[in-house]
Automatic annotation (TrEMBL):
Gene3D superfamilies: IlvD/EDD C-terminal domain-like (3.50.30.80). This is Dihydroxy-acid dehydratase family protein. Residues 45-358 form the Dihydroxy-acid/6-phosphogluconate dehydratase N-terminal domain. Pfam families: ILV_EDD_C, ILVD_EDD_N. NCBIfam families: PRK06131.1, PRK13017.1. SUPFAM superfamilies: IlvD/EDD N-terminal domain-like (SSF143975), LeuD/IlvD-like (SSF52016). Belongs to the IlvD/Edd family. It comes from Sphingomonas telluris. PANTHER family: HYPOTHETICAL DIHYDROXY-ACID DEHYDRATASE (EUROFUNG)-RELATED, HYPOTHETICAL DIHYDROXYACID DEHYDRATASE (EUROFUNG)-RELATED. Residues 368-572 form the Dihydroxy-acid/6-phosphogluconate dehydratase C-terminal domain.
Length: 590
């Protein structure tokens, strides 16, 4: 039986172009040199690209080197021709000065590959934090049928009988090290135990959050995000993903048909219910912008803030990915939201069905891990959006505000949710590390630690540095966190209730540039305001001072990134790239 694609496959233009047998021969011959036959390539079957994000440099995604065989088997069985190619590596923990530089670079590279080669549809392999948004952003720009496949999280980590989650254990152990309760060897043992198998972070950090967001957007098969990397179901969903993308190629089911404002609002609500990473904000906004979908800063408050925390997963909760998966994973959380009327069930997905159809029968099986909507871990668990004279936009993750923090800062009678603190200002993380234990700063519990020069242009790339820990002297007194604020980001695995992603950043003249150590900052969570109590005349005078120092660009890409990238509030995308959408509608010239 021959199937007719809903739109002619673009690979025909390469391998079967009428009247261009000269070019066609050239296109075909080298793909034959590893054993493909001209019949295969001219049979009319879709060519399915597989974007390989795993490598020795990206251990979080390395499982894809094996999984890809199951993807290829699925593609072959469904009647497609697989072609695997490498994606620019992005590994969160080791890339200096920050992996954030790579999201837009991998995006650019992937756009060129998907657009310039005979690829009809693509499997986007994802895992580590930015591999997911980079892949989806590129799929939006090119707009060919695309499906994401996560490599899945690591198994749960255990240390001396306790669950230790990747990333989260680092932030918690860092405090113990600072307080003198553990030594460096014990620190490394705890870290190693948090990462017991192949896979990405097993906490609800940025990797798990972004793969969940892909499910929430309708871009992966249901359940894809949370299946641990070593589980048999991971290989099985790789196979099913391979099968499904072939049908999607025939159906011409492209990102532009799936990604709507409603699907992005679903993703925003899902992040709240998961207690997901603050990095979801620039990534969701970035993907929406490349998809041509308008999101407003107020959407995070209007649609996300009131959603309760349902997933009992670190850092906001207790458990890790394995147990989360067994409890029902992301579909079970979306099921709760759907029943509560907080999810648009009509949104279309890569299955060709709606979210509501996919979620039928996906109720959670372990209520300790995935709570019912009306018995959540925490009410109003979304991101707070703040503005004021220091920035136009910043967010705060409320699901990680601890009781201790709430009692100390947010519960004074008559002043609930309002506090004032003395600013201690650092110019980047080197400055922080040099000076945090300097006794002359007199840092106490009435201080707010501020870091600037850590945004997209200042760092460059925007660094995960805002979750600064208090000086050792305070840690030794049992003060484990101070309020923090900055124009950088923080790890999705961090349990710090920071005010972060402040835009515009200090490097482009944002308000943090004129802030001085010793200024009082007033934070009013109820009204979403954060202001330095400095009068207008003084602010105007300080604006004439030399701007805070930032490092020079050290590579060509750093320079280009700084020239072309926007602010975090707007997704930190390559601004000029947003206008390119649906490039696959125009086949590149011979
Ligand atoms: Fe790669 Fe967390 S560091 S997933
Ligand atoms: Mg990170």
């Amino acid at each position: 039986m021959t199937r007719t694609p809903a739109r002619p496959f673009r690979s025909r233009e390469w391998f079967d172009a009428p009247g261009r047998s000269d070019m066609t021969a050239l296109y075909l011959e080298r793909y034959m040199n590893y054993g493909l036959t001209p019949d295969e390539l001219r049979s009319g079957k879709p060519i399915i690209g597989i974007s390989q994000s795993g490598s020795d440099l990206v251990p979080c995604n390395r499982i894809h080197l094996q999984l890809v065989e199951r993807v290829k088997a699925g593609i072959r069985d469904a009647g497609g021709v697989p072609m695997e190619f490498p994606m620019h590596p992005i590994f969160e923990n080791c890339r200096r000065p920050t992996a954030a530089l790579d999201r837009n670079l991998a995006y650019l590279g992937l756009v060129e590959v998907l657009n310039g080669y005979p690829i009809d549809a693509v499997v986007l392999t994802t895992g580590c934090d930015k591999t997911t948004p980079a892949s989806i952003m590129a799929a939006c720009t090119v707009d060919i049928p695309a499906i994401t496949l996560s490599g899945g999280p690591m198994l749960d980590g255990w240390h001396e009988g306790e669950l230790v989650g990747s990333g989260t254990v680092i932030w918690r152990s860092r405090r113990l090290l600072g307080a003198g309760k553990i030594d460096e060897e014990e620190f490394l043992r705890r870290a190693a135990d948090s990462a017991p198998s192949p896979g990405h972070c097993n906490t609800m950090g940025t990797a798990s959050t972004m793969n969940a967001v892909s499910e929430g957007l309708g871009l992966s098969l249901p359940g894809n995000a949370a299946i641990p990397a070593p589980y048999r179901e991971r290989g099985q969903i790789a196979y099913e993903t391979g099968r499904r993308i072939v049908d999607m190629a025939y159906e011409d089911l492209r990102p532009s048909k799936i990604l709507t404002r409603e699907s992005f609002l679903n993703a925003i609500r899902l992040v709240s219910a998961l207690g997901g990473s603050t990095n979801a904000q620039p990534h969701i906004v970035g993907m929406a912008r490349h998809a041509g979908v308008e999101l407003r800063p107020s959407d995070w408050m209007e649609f996300g803030y009131d959603v309760p925390l349902l997933a009992n997963v670190q850092p906001a909760g207790q458990y890790l990915s394995e147990r989360f998966h067994r409890a029902g994973g992301v579909p079970a959380v979306m099921w709760e939201l759907l029943q509560a009327g907080k999810f648009d069930g009509d949104a279309l997905t890569v299955t060709g069905k709606t979210q509501a159809e996919n979620l039928n029968g996906r109720e959670a099986t372990d209520r300790e891990v995935i709570r019912p909507f009306d018995q959540p871990l925490k009410e109003h668990a979304g991101f707070l959006v703040l503005h004021g004279n220091l920035f136009d936009f910043a967010i705060m993750k409320t699901s990680v505000i601890s009781e201790e923090f709430r009692n100390r800062y947010l519960s004074r009678p008559g002043h609930e949710d309002v506090f004032e603190a003395r600013a201690i200002v650092f110019d980047g993380s080197d400055d922080y590390h040099h000076r945090i234990n300097d006794p002359s700063l007199n840092i106490d519990e009435n201080c707010i630690l501020v870091i600037r020069g850590s945004g997209p242009l200042g760092w460059p790339g925007s660094a995960e540095v805002v979750n600064m820990q208090p000086p050792d002297a305070l840690l030794q007194r049992g003060i484990t966190s101070l309020p923090t604020l900055g124009d950088g980001r923080q790890s999705g695995t961090s349990d710090s209730p920071s005010i972060l992603n402040a835009s515009p950043e200090s490097a482009v003249g944002g308000g943090l540039a004129w802030l001085h150590t010793g200024d009082t900052i007033r934070i009013d969570l109820k009204n979403g305001r954060c202001d330095a109590l400095v009068d207008e005349a003084e602010i105007a005078r300080r604006k004439d001072d030399a701007p805070p120092p930032i490092p020079e660009s050290n590579t060509p890409w750093e320079e280009l990134y700084r020239e072309k990238t926007g602010q975090m509030g707007e997704g930190a995308v390559l601004e000029f790239a947003v206008k390119y959408r649906g490039t696959s509608n125009r086949t590149p010239r011979h």
